[in-house]
Write a structure and sequence with these properties.
- The protein is of the alpha/beta class.
- It has a single domain (1-245), classed as Rossmann fold, CATH 3.40.50.
- The chain is built from eleven helices and eight strands.
- Strands 1, 2, 3, 4, 5, 6, 7 and 8 form an eight-stranded mixed beta sheet that branches.
- The two termini are 33 Å apart.
- It holds the Pfam family Methyltransf_19.
- This is SAM-dependent methyltransferase.
Amino acid sequence: MYDYVLGGKDNYAADRELAGHLIASIPDGVEALRANRRFLGRAIAHVAGQGIDQFIDLGAGLPNQGNVHEIAQRVHPHAHVVYVDIDPVVIAHARALLAADDRTAALQADMRDPGTVFASDAVARLIDFDRPVGVIFNAMLHFVTDAEDPAGIVGAFTDRMAPGSHLVISHSTLDDRPADLVEIIRAAYENASAPMVFRDHDAILRLFNGLRLVEPGLVKVNRWHSDAEEAAATGGAWVYGGVAVK
């Protein structure tokens, strides 16, 4: 759905059908996805600008528009990126897309099992945890229930990160959202393979596990390092985003 809404070609009829339903039901739903993707682009450009040249993108959802390796390699042509996703179809597409790039890898793994990620050949080959790394949870932790301990999942990665590493999180919220749209969203996801857990500002802030947030902190994604036009985009109000430094 994400790829379809962002204008990509790697999607299926079921994706387009459900996306069409959400587009019709939620006036700024498409803009929310696009605003989140623009936030990711700005966040990765910022992190790469701090000298980070290796990234782990958890729940990557490749192929997509404006991928992490494309943004990072504009700043550091040699940048290494490991994409992690649980979906075998995503991984098959990603491996085909990345086949000619030995600086990137696509790993089929569950981000809720960090040990499997750390033990993988892809991470061993491309990521050096003795140096700063960028770890990305872009629009993924809202698929993790409280019982699955999202803060603990994030903490497993931040514990491995060297000082100077950066953590990027974006997460859906219902803060200040119209009540009549909430049930539409819940209904759309009730038969999905993963739940949609909306969290408020304080709950999302706790996911950063006390790391120092880059200014302006945890804000709606359209207000993070954005210009006036982007800040006025209403769709960004559905998603909080922030970048933190260890």
